[in-house]
Amino acid sequence: MGRTILLAVFVTAAVMAVAPSALAKGPLQVCGASGCVDLGPETDTSKWLGNAPGASSVAPPAPAPYFVLRFGDFGGPQAYWIPSVSMLRTFQSTTVVWAAVAPETEAALVRLTTGLQPYAAPRGAVAFVDYDNVKRGETYLRLYTIGTPVASPPATTEWLGIWLHGGTSPWNDGMSSFWISKKGSLLKRDGQVLRISPAIAKRIRAHLPLA
Q: What's the predicted TM-score (pTM) here?
């Protein structure tokens, strides 16, 4: 049952991420908790999202206040903007991408959102490891900020899936991909392999909180 539910959650999230590209209508907007402002017509999308080229070495930030970039007549997120670190998070093809915002784009976003209240940083999340629920899933938001990149894992490395969802923010919308090695202390986050603390790796495999 757990496997079926998690697959359904992932498929739904993926459809929501891809659908705006096919059905988008209306102006591109930047939205916060207090409302939205128009960025420009739909044809200007690449102007605002062109700084995320499909692959990025920029590490994701810790949860922070954020804005949503979306089409006015559709509502599904096209990207998230995190002003405190000047970063965009997009979903391109099948990969989550975190990218730095170009200075001129950042300046325009700051100007247009002056007086607009951002969405609050997420505090909650639901986490599963190898299809088993983790108590205090919000502690797994730490997975975004831990680890040291490694060149590549051993070819024989086996992985256990980690699912992190339960909200609508770029940190808990279920779109990021996480894996923990069955042995050792490797974490795979959106395709990038990282070395983490052996103690944390053991806690993840044991489905324990990361506090």
A: 0.84
